[in-house]
Amino acid sequence: MDRLCVISDSVDRAEDIGRQLAGIFVTQSFARHGLSRATPTKYNIVDIDLEDSSHLADLRLWLELRPKYGKAIFAIERGVRRQVAQAYAIGATDLVDRPIERKTLLTALFGEIGALVGEPFSIGNSDGVLAGIGALQGIFASAVSGTTLDLKMVHAAGETVVSHIETEGLLRWIDIVRQHHSLTYQHCLLVTGIAVTFGQQLGFSSADKQKLAFAGLLHDIGKAGVPVALLEKPSPLKGEEITVMKQHPLLGFAALRDVQGLDPDMLDMVVHHHEYLDGTGYPHGLEASELSDLVRMMTIADVFGALIERRTYKSPSSCAAAYQVLENMGPKLDTDLVREFQPFARVRIG
């Protein structure tokens, strides 16, 4: 997980702010007089008395040490214009009003999509799911901000997800994930769990199952470039909305193409997981000979995940019904892999 530095007038107050972001960041909390012991990170929150000018110069110099593109979110009193000017003069990149609210903080830190993460521990205290949520937060944040994706963070989250699936099984994963309020997070986490379980069923090595977890977490990174109003729309998309949504594979490719050390298979999977073997998919209309095994597996997991997830405008399909849809898609999907996927039809979900 990314590190977050919180500076406040007291350590207790800084820790209170840090607790609002539990499960997303590793938080360091400092009183303003302890700046010499703190190191600015990519994400910084400052909640201090801006009316006391005695410490503002030191704070400005401290913020100049933050990493390139590092954020500094300042808390100010609503409607006090001089605090707005002071905060930006010191180095603020964004402002939030007091009293500080978690959703407002996440939006300031990660953009609109950041607020989709949900309340802390609202979906159960599961290390696997929390690791997945933290990874998705970092993945979407990198795409929104244009900063380099932390591959080690995603790999570490993938290991935790694989461990969860191996210990507690897919059914428990589905039960927890479907409680998440965000359709975007719910879908990404479902696809991840399904992909890992598929690999487990096929006898994949630990390394290959972790690769599937990485792929599941990463596959929809392009949705960071789609308006949240469409991602979370409580009714089916129509017309131009569908056209906009179909841009997400290309947006994902754009976000990742310059990432050093990223497995080329992952880039291929991100841009092609909506392709079908008969050439009717998007965005490039590729055919069977052009689609890798990883892409084929992720396409099956993606379709199945979309069918069993909860949406406000439709009831989730049973696993048996979702598997029947996969079978009915015939030449669009790899029929051998669909056949191997059949045990998923027997999973009983509520």
The CA-CA distance between the termini, in Å, is: 32 Å
Shape: elongated
Number of strands: 5
Helix content: 40-55%
Q: In total, how many domains does the architecture comprise?
A: 2
Task: Give the key terms.
350 residues; alpha/beta; Rossmann fold; Hypothetical protein af1432; 2 domains; 5-stranded parallel sheet; 15 helices; 5 strands; elongated
Word description of this protein:
With 350 residues, this protein is α/β, with parallel strands linked by helices. It folds into two domains: 2-110, Rossmann fold (3-Layer(aba) Sandwich), CATH 3.40.50; 115-346, Orthogonal Bundle (Hypothetical protein af1432). It contains 15 helices and five strands. The chain has helices at residues 11-19, 56-63, 81-90, 102-110, 127-145, 151-177, 183-201, 206-218, 228-231, 240-245, 248-256, 264-272, 293-308, 319-328, 335-340; strands spanning 2-8, 25-31, 43-47, 71-76, 94-97. The chain has a five-stranded parallel β-sheet with strand order 2-1-3-4-5, sandwiched between helices. The mean pLDDT is 91.
What is this structure's SSE topology?
Layout: E1 2-8, H1 11-19, E2 25-31, E3 43-47, H2 56-63, E4 71-76, H3 81-90, E5 94-97, H4 102-110, H5 127-145, H6 151-177, H7 183-201, H8 206-218, H9 228-231, H10 240-245, H11 248-256, H12 264-272, H13 293-308, H14 319-328, H15 335-340
Parallel strand pairs: 1-2, 1-3, 3-4, 4-5
Helix pairs in contact: 5-6, 6-7, 6-8, 7-8, 7-13, 11-12, 12-13, 13-14
Would you kindly provide a brief summary of this structure?
The protein contains 15 helices and 5 strands. By secondary structure, the chain is α/β, with parallel strands linked by helices. It folds into 2 domains: 2-110, Rossmann fold, CATH 3.40.50.2300; 115-346, Orthogonal Bundle (Hypothetical protein af1432), CATH 1.10.3210.10.
